[in-house]
Amino acid sequence: MRELLAHLGGVALFAVPGCALTGLFPGLRATPWLRRLGYGHLLGVAAVAGTLYALSALLGVPLRRPAIFGTAAALTAAGLVGYLRAGRREGIHRRLPFRARLAALLLALVGAGVSAGLFAEALVFPLRDWDGRMHWAAQARYIRFEGSVLPLAVVRGQWYINHPRYPVLLPVAQVAVLEATGAGEDELFFRGLYASFLPAFLLVLYDGARRWAGWLPAGLATAAAASIPFLTFFVDGGAAGSYSDLPLACFYGAALVLLLRGRVFPSDGIAAGLLLGAAVLTKNEGTILAGFALLAAALGPGLRRRKTSLAAAAVLLAVLAFFVYWRLQIPNRQDENYEERVTVGQFFPGALTRIPDFGGRILIQTFLTWDRWLGFWWVAPLVLVAGRGVFQGRRAALSWPLLLGFAAPLALAWGAYTVHWQPDGLARVTWERFLVQGSLPFFLLLALALREALQRASPGWRVYSNRSRG
Amino acid sequence: MRSSVFPRLALGLFAVFLAISIFQAARASGRSGLLLLQARGETPSEERVRAYGPEYTRAIAEIRRTIPEDGAYILISGSPEAEGAPYWVKYDLAPRRAVYLGELGSLQPVERLRRRMPRAARWVVIAYDAYRPPLLIERFRFVQERQRRQGA
Question: Which helix (H) or strand (E) covers residue B96, if one does?
Fold first, then answer.
């Protein structure tokens, strides 16, 4: 029982301040409460762990209970002030017909059931994944021991750390949970937090898809995401492990949804900026993906959206400056030196001539990994072709930025494989994780295509979308 | 009017995918739930024994008792590094700091090895794959053994 409470408490440490923080952003405040929970949880991880990361690196504040509870309480209070000042305003809720509500409930049960299964998995097993033990959870142990994001083992070049300059937002989140719950050496109460990224992903996905495609395509796309093994029970990349790819997908995807929403407020850009900042501090790829998210948002029409993007860019720049400052204090020793490898001479014509070195591996990992994707990448492109109308007309303003959002991590992968000395080996262990990183915009695109295909297959079918809320 | 055959085919295949994937997900969730019931009341140590085996778990506990948390050690991989053994052992022994010397089969000559060994590290830990128990050796014994082998 103590273990269950500790895992739940670890999730609440971020979800409570995060949900309160949504009170500061009018667009999120107007989002129905269950869907708001997804954004809230992600904002909570970004804000609580991000603040602790900054407090430790800039002011040397020890990562112990006073700082952790103080940060969570201060952020909760700030968010509640936002709710109190805004007063009680009801959003416009369109009631779905009974059959639609029943179907939505059944599809929601799929997400809830898988999330519960993942939580049970977190309670039953110690860490079994590769990167979690090689890097993320090991970093968390060094950070926890010294109460600092700059522990001796990391800042002194003689000690063996696999990726010393990788950002450590998630290890800081692990430390916050372990300290807050008073966990012993082998009590891994942070595992519930990793499992919680899947329901957050599903809620954000459902929110975006419901706005843009209606309840049935949204439910179908969400159910598909909830039942793909690689995103869920696969320990080396899914929510059952402690890799950072699914959290990165959540931060990046949720920011993209916020930036692309129809009715946005410039202050919502700050929320999107916080999420993009969290992406930067979660994985190295996050910096480039954040740039792509802003680019995708800029493709959309409207002055208001540009103001929102500017607000997000301002927050992102501040986070980037902090990340560079933190990173400069850590000598590199094991990391791939991509900064030096990516030169124009290396990249061209290698980007084309080296495709045979890794192209086959990419095809194998995408299409011949039945146990991980259950044939999803065979079926999804067919649905996209059936619903190709989404790339024309009114929906194109949304579909193309989403496609860019999905393609961004894949382009990043292509770049990495082009300059790497062993592209086949690298593609074998990373390609599917790049697919995960871009999966939220892909599932949104899939929902749009499903809607189009449903309308083409059955012209009488009516879409109950939520256009009034943008 | 556009044909509705292809959209119907695509939606049909998607429905088949969804039926299979939801069935698999329900099975995996059920299995986790069942495991949770079976494993209720287990201590973290018992969980580790179930996942990694008793010998590995016991050896790690012994090393943890020997090397203090603020201590350091020299890590060597007794199996190919790509099997992951040094990573698992480094994680299990963290926050103890490690200096990694590479695979046992391709270690440098003793004189060069000694230069890479920090004074703070009094112990050598050799990690093996497949959760075989890691070996703990005093540093001077390890160096003596290497010298003897080098001489031979």
Answer: none
CA–CA gap between residue A356 and residue A343 (Å, rounded): 20
Query: Using CA atoms, how far apart are residues A445 and A11, in angstroms rounded to an integer?
Result: 29
- B95/A144 CB distance under 8 A: yes
Q: What is the pLDDT of residue A467?
A: 46
- Token look-up 């990562």 returns A63
Residues in chain B, pLDDT under 70: 1-2, 152
Distance CA A189, CA A179 (A): 10
Task: Please state, as a whole number, how many other Cβ atoms lie within 10 Å of the Cβ of residue A225.
Answer: 27
The pLDDT of residue A304 is 65
Distance from CA of B70 to the nearest CA of A (A): 9
Pair A293, A255: CB distance under 8 Å:
yes
Give the helix/strand (H/E) hosting B73. Answer: strand B72-77
> Which A-chain residues 89-148 have CB contacts (< 8 A) with chain B?
110, 113-114, 116-118, 120-121, 123-128, 130, 133-134, 137-138, 141-142, 144-146
Residue A251 contacts residue A279 (beta carbons within 8 Å): yes
Number of Cβ pairs < 8 A linking chain A and chain B: 166
Q: Name chain A contacts of B33, Cβ cutoff 8 Å.
A: 116-117, 120
Query: Cβ contacts of residue A97 below 8 Å, gap of 6+?
Result: A464
Burial A368-385 (b: 16+ CB within 10 A, else e): ebeebbbbbbebbebbbe
3-class DSSP assignment, residue B103 = strand
B72-77 sheet: strands from edge to edge: B97-103, B72-77, B121-127, B135-138
* Predicted local distance difference test score (pLDDT) of residue A336: 67
Question: What are the structure tokens assigned to B145, written together?
Answer: 């053994």
d(CA A301, CA A259): 11
Q: What are phi and psi of A19, to 5 degrees?
A: -65, -35
Tell me, yes or no, if B36 comes closer than 8 A to chain A by beta carbon: yes
Cα distance between residue A293 and residue A276, in whole Å: 8
pLDDT in tens, A397-436: 899 999 999 999 999 999 999 988 899 999 999 999 999 9
8 Å CB contact between B7 and A387: yes
Hey, what are B30's tokens?
A: 């059920």
This model of the complex carries an ipTM of 0.94
At A469 the pLDDT is: 43
Of residues B84, B91, B97, nearest to A137 (C-beta):
B91
* pLDDT tens sequence across A274-326: 999 999 999 999 999 999 999 998 877 666 677 888 999 999 999 999 999 99
In angstroms, what separates the C-alpha of A57 from chain B's closest C-alpha? 19
Residues 43-82 of chain B whose Cβ lies under 8 A from any Cβ of chain A: 44-45, 47-48, 51-52, 64, 69-70, 72, 75
DSSP single-letter state for residue A116? H
CB proximity B130 to A under 8 Å: no
What is the C-alpha separation between A40 and A204, in angstroms, rounded? 10
B112 alpha carbon, distance to own chain's centre: 28
Closest residue by Cα to residue A47 from A227, A169, A137: A169
